[in-house]
Amino acid sequence: MNLNESKVKFLRFVLLAFSYFIAFELTLLIKSQMHLSTVESIALIGFTFSFFPFDFLISKEDFSNIFYSGSFLTMASAEIFSKLFWIILCSLIAALIYKKSRQLFIGFGGRLGSITFTSSSIALLIHFLKGLI
Known about the structure:
The protein is mostly helical.
C-alpha cells in the first residue's frame, strides 16, 4: 500500500466518523427545534439521507447507512452524551466498527443498531472506568 492509498483510507475513516457526529447533532437539532420524538427525528434523518446523492470517498449506501446509524446515538444516555468528547469518541468507535463490519451480516437486519449500541456501550464503559481510576 502506498502513501496515497493510506491517505485515502484515513480520509474515508475521518469522513465516516464525522458523518456519525453530524447525524447525531442533526437529529438532536431536529428533535429540539421541530419538537419531534426521538424516533420521529431518526426516521426523518434516515429518510432524508437515503435520497442524498453523496458519492465521494464512500458509497451512497454507506453514507445513508451511517447517517441512519449515527442518529441512533440520540437514544443513548443524554447525561453522558451531552459532552462533546463522548460524542466524538462514540463516533470514532462507531466508524471503526462500521468499517470493519462492512462485509459482515449482509442481508441481516439490525446491523446499524448493533453498531450504535456497541459503540455507545464501549464509550459508556470507558466513561465509568475513567471515574473509577
